[in-house]
């Protein structure tokens, strides 16, 4: 399995979504790593809102998608109360759009079919640079702390007690665009343990974090790299038992899912959407019901340039470039 070709394929799939979308600006402008259809004149690394009002969009129905980490049906319910509140704040209909992959989610925003989204940690840079995603908030606990850790897990009886024991065995990743499911563990295994996929172990891709976690719990994989909060939510929902898995490595804390909008929404609409996030009362809602399992309790303000700095560095260490075509 050629991992570089696999990642290139994921990025190439995103590029196919260019149909139906008109570049925000063909003019010469500052854009950094952004795709040529976007400008970044203010230097915040995120696509600017088009200055021409005719290029700004104000849809009657707002389409929202949450990162495809786990069962979409679970999260359609989890986000239902928030979407009702979003309708009240914006005066527009809001619908949940289930996506099956990170690439499909990015394609949807790049082609103009997705207006509001939560992109996972690893796909945020691709969404920002290739799809004009403009993130502004993440979830946090009551005390304002946020983030998650990449964990490498195994199951009792696997013969894996430490990282080095993975040599010669299979290791599950989620997808090439995932930070904790692929990019961070790849960089850490190489830098700290001199272990490289295909040379030292056989990499397999499960598609999603819950697939990897279930695969380890059911002894299909001897080891997997996952986001720890996904595992804790699955334990809280009794999807797996705590004694079915064990952690053998934990990373530093990474920023969790970033939420934001397409860059070309009318500023007045984006302001109402931001207000909905920051004024939403979690108490007794379906959002609290699901995300309290991983200690989230509010939305806090963030900016991509600072919060995703460590993720961009991991991408650089892995030789990943944000090329969209």
UniProtKB/TrEMBL annotation:
One GO CC term, this protein: ATP-binding cassette (ABC) transporter complex
GO biological process: transmembrane transport
Annotated signal sequence range: 1-26
Record keywords: Signal
InterPro entries hit by this protein: PhnD (IPR005770), Solute-binding_3/MltF_N (IPR001638)
Superkingdom of origin organism: Bacteria
Stored Pfam families: Phosphonate-bd (PF12974)
Domain Solute-binding protein family 3/N-terminal, chain residue ranges per copy: 61-294
NCBIfam families, alphabetized: 3A0109s03R
Assigned protein family: Belongs to the phosphate/phosphite/phosphonate binding protein family.
Protein name: Phosphate/phosphite/phosphonate ABC transporter substrate-binding protein
UniProt source species: Stappia sediminis
Lineage, highest ranks first: Bacteria, Pseudomonadati, Pseudomonadota, Alphaproteobacteria, Hyphomicrobiales
């Amino acid at each position: 399995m050629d991992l570089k070709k696999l990642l290139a394929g994921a990025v190439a799939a995103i590029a196919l979504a260019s149909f139906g979308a008109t570049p925000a600006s063909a003019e010469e402008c500052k854009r950094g790593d952004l795709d040529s259809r976007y400008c970044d004149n203010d230097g915040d690394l995120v696509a600017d809102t088009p200055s021409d009002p005719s290029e700004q969009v104000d849809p009657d129905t707002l389409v929202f998608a949450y990162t495809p980490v786990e069962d979409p049906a679970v999260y359609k319910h989890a986000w239902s109360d928030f979407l009702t509140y979003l309708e009240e704040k914006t005066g527009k209909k809001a619908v949940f759009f289930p996506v099956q992959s990170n690439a499909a989610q990015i394609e949807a925003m790049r082609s103009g079919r997705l207006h509001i989204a939560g992109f996972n940690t690893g796909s945020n840079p691709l969404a920002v640079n290739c799809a004009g995603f403009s993130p502004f908030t993440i979830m946090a606990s009551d005390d304002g702390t946020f983030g998650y850790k990449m964990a490498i897990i195994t199951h009792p009886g696997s013969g894996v007690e430490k990282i080095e024991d993975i040599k010669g065995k299979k290791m599950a990743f989620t997808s090439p665009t995932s930070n904790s499911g692929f990019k961070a563990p790849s960089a850490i295994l190489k830098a700290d343990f001199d272990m490289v996929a295909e040379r030292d172990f056989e990499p397999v891709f499960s598609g999603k974090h819950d697939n990897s976690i279930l695969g380890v719990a059911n002894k299909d994989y001897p080891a997997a790299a996952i986001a720890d909060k996904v595992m804790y939510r699955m334990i809280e929902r009794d999807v797996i038992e705590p004694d079915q898995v064990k952690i053998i490595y934990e990373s530093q804390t990474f920023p969790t899912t970033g939420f934001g909008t397409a860059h070309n929404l009318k500023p007045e609409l984006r302001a109402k959407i931001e207000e909905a996030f920051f004024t939403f009362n979690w108490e007794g809602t379906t959002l609290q019901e699901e995300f309290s399992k991983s200690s989230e309790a509010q939305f806090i303000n963030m900016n991509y340039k600072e919060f995703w700095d460590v993720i961009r560095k991991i991408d650089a260490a892995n030789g990943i470039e944000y090329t969209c075509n």
